[in-house]
Write a structure and sequence with these properties.
Structural class: mainly alpha
Radius of gyration: 33 Å
Shape: rod-shaped
Number of strands: 0
Largest sheet: none
Strand content: under 5%
Distance between the termini: 111 Å
Order of helices and strands: HHHH
Number of helices: 4
Helix content: over 70%
Oligomer: single chain
Length: 171
């Protein structure tokens, strides 16, 4: 009888050990999943930020606005995220790149990012000058078009050949 009790205790202890091991494994995998999801979210946000920067630059070139704070915020956020992906950030729950291959790819992104960022910042600095020049061109292009239209109309009244009128119209 004691032999059966010892075997039951052994089986119970082994099952308890297996259950505890499974619980710790689940907790570890769950924790790992949280950190992985943070990295995936940041990587996805990087893609969104590059699109947002391009859209904001386009908006600045086509509108009369010189409000560039959105572009600068996006640049800073992309920069911070990229550094966190490469070096890790305990505060944000992001660990540094786990393999050399991933780190090399992130460093390649950084190598391409830095000149892009520099050019965007340069654009933002020169934007006010460009806007005043753009306003000048827009105002004066209408006047030039009106003058060209008057010339073409005069040429038609005077009976110039179509070839010359076409040339004047293309101006």
């Amino acid at each position: 009888m004691s032999k059966i009790i010892n075997q039951i205790r052994f089986i119970g202890g082994a099952l308890s050990l297996i259950i505890i091991t499974i619980l710790f494994s689940i907790l570890y995998i769950n924790q790992k999943g949280k950190t992985d999801s943070a990295v995936i979210n940041i990587a996805g946000k990087q893609r969104m930020l590059t699109q947002k920067i391009s859209k904001d630059i386009f908006r600045l070139t086509t509108s009369h606005s010189t409000k560039n704070s959105d572009v600068m915020k996006s640049l800073n956020e992309f920069d911070r995220n990229l550094n966190d992906l490469i070096n890790g950030s305990v505060k944000r729950g992001v660990y540094q790149a786990p393999t050399k291959e991933i780190k090399d790819q992130l460093l390649l992104v950084k190598k391409q990012w830095l000149p892009f960022k520099e050019r965007v910042e340069e654009f933002v600095v020169h934007l006010p000058k460009m806007n005043s020049k753009k306003e000048f061109v827009l105002k004066n292009s209408d006047r030039l078009l009106d003058f060209s239209d008057d010339i073409v109309k005069s040429m038609v009244k005077l009976g110039f050949e179509g070839y010359y009128i076409d040339l004047a119209g293309k101006q």
